[in-house]
Amino acid sequence: MGSSLAGKLARLGVSQVQDLLFLLPMRYEDRTRLTEIGVLRPGMRVTVEGYVDLTDVVYRRRRMMLCRMSDGSGALLLRFFHFSRAQADGLKRGTRIRCFGEVRLGPTGLEMVHPEYRRLAEDADEPLEDSYTPVYPATEGLGQARIRRLVSLALERLAANPPPDLLPQNITGGLGFPPLVEALVYLHRPPTGASLALLDEGRHPAQRRLAFEELLAQHLSLRMLRRKVRDRASPRLESDGAQLRRFKRGLPFRLTGAQERVLGELLADMATDRPMLRLVQGDVGSGKTVVAAGAAVVTVAAGYQAAVMAPTELLAEQHCRNFETWLGPLGVRVAWLAGRLGAAARRRALEQIGSGEAHVVVGTHALFQSGVEFARLGLVVIDEQHRFGVHQRLALTEKGEADGLRPHQLVMTATPIPRTLAMVSYADLDTSSIDELPPGRGQVATVAVPSSRRPEVLDRVRLACRSGRQAYWVCPLIEESEVLQYQAAEETAAALSDALPELVVGLVHGRMKAGDKQSVMDDFKAGRVQLLVATTVIEVGVDVPNASLMIIENSERMGLAQLHQLRGRVGRGSTDSSCVLMYQPPLGETAERRLRVLRQTSDGFRIAEEDLRLRGPGEVLGTRQTGVMQLRVADIMRDRDLLPQVREVADRLLSGRSPAITRILERWVGDAARYGQV
Ligand code: ADP
Ligand code: MG
After folding, report:
1. Ligand 1 centroid to 286 CA: how many Å?
2. Could you tell me which residues come within 8 angstroms of residue 14 by beta carbon, excluding any fewer than 6 positions away?
3. Tell me: the pLDDT tens digits for 163-200?
4. What Å distances lie between residue 391 and 101, 262, 381, 394, 674, CA to CA?
5. 444-621: what CATH class?
6. 81 touches ligand 1 (CB under 6 Å)
7. Global confidence as pTM
8. Comparing 243-272+287-413 with 444-621, is the CATH topology the same?
């Protein structure tokens, strides 16, 4: 095989012959029988056979070739936008052809756009396919035909060199799964008579057999990763509790029961000599930051440093202030490190971090860039974790290791992770939940309003601000371009200033310098700005209790989790708040469902489940980009009934130190070295 083909295959995760067997079709086509043109309906994907009546090259807006064919039962138009002279010549009147494609309703009746077609000899008996035709995930420069040929070659070698069945026999038998080889052959070559409906839904036992193994591989890889990390030593972070008591006494509020419990769970982990790997989940506004601060207090009291990392500068800055306010009086020195620090300030910060003069360091991912050396790092806190992948996250603590001691790791997320998902995606972490909001929080009423009712929305803003409250106005999300995004925000801010001349309107967007952003936020926090116009930069973490009104424009373009986060910016004080979801009609089905869910509930868990259902796990977790959880066969929602058994089998394999583990990981997770190294 040439290196160019090898490169293309590598993009599909195929590096050896056996991988081809595990490159499974995404769907199937039935080319085993002919369909009469007379019975075609739009949406059918079928094979038809007949004679060309007429072929013409025409110009309508663009150049195209139209070919009319018929088979005695009816006529069908074939439409081609890309074609050669030779193709047009080859489709002369009277030519016998067979074509496969999707039927749709065109301007003049039923048609197929770019069908696959083949000319047939006038009298020859041309056999049809004898099994369903698999459609594989293709890649640039590597089309279906080529992949099918390669898979055929692999299938031919299967008998001589079958891949081993790595699942315990009694399990697969008990679940009604076929043996591995049988499942593979079936999926690459479903015999005529197989249920295409079942296959398309991914619910055939042969598919479930493979989905099970893939989910098992994902789960195992995280558990192995966890074991590797937990094999390392960590500093015991214990203190006599005096500092912690002082810290709590100094807070302007009492911790909730849930906060106390979770802090206790963290401290118990940190007091051992094994790295803590813990996820704290809690809905927006549940008060995660102060819990992390408590953990930092104990870390510092034990003579170590804590690093606190947030995904945006705005949020990091806010954390930094909170930590300074809460921990400063205890004599804890808090340092700041972000990307856009001046050279001198950066040098100074690095010195303090390296000498141990800084006890707590707050910042963005700049905290873990090269050149940053901690004196004695004991705790790494990662806020709003869904933006980091598993490996990125673990690499952080690896970097922070000093004298052979791994820092403890605390991950905080406001996107509750549905249990099903957690098992496959967060099996490396223990979980704590802050399942109680601080007392005295007002309700947030949520309404959806078409953009045509903007004047009423403006009235609401006016009213809220007149009574001394403040409001957010979140601008439309423009995915294509950051520049357009901030221009839109600037225009919105200008328009709102005109419409509401009595109000002070501020603007923050992602393109502003950190300092400018901060000063606008400060003005808003202090009440000098009444209406804050923002792009979605305020999504994560901004905390201004006096703001009681959230307006979100073009909410139909945003995801559920994002909307929930944005809404969580209000309802932080004791007055009742509202959230207005403006939308541009007509609403699509999914968008409508999203807005309905938001109106009905503010329960983060329900919203997360619903989000998972509407968007799929990769997007919910933000892992699609980082490639952590690209499932080939399995679908977490669809196959979630398999998960309890997946866990059971994983437990069994792990406790028996089964050699099958490595082979399962190699087969499904690939790049197994990655898991071995951490
Ligand atoms: P999140 O969990 O969304 O990160 P924060 O940590 O930003 O929430 O906390 C939200 C707000 O609630 C902050 O103003 C914080 O000071 C406040 N807060 C946290 N815990 C309590 C509590 N026990 N009682 C009252 N207010 C609290
Ligand atoms: Mg937070």
Report:
1. 6
2. 20, 23
3. 999 988 888 888 889 999 999 999 999 988 888 889 98
4. 43, 25, 15, 5, 9
5. alpha beta
6. no
7. 0.75
8. yes
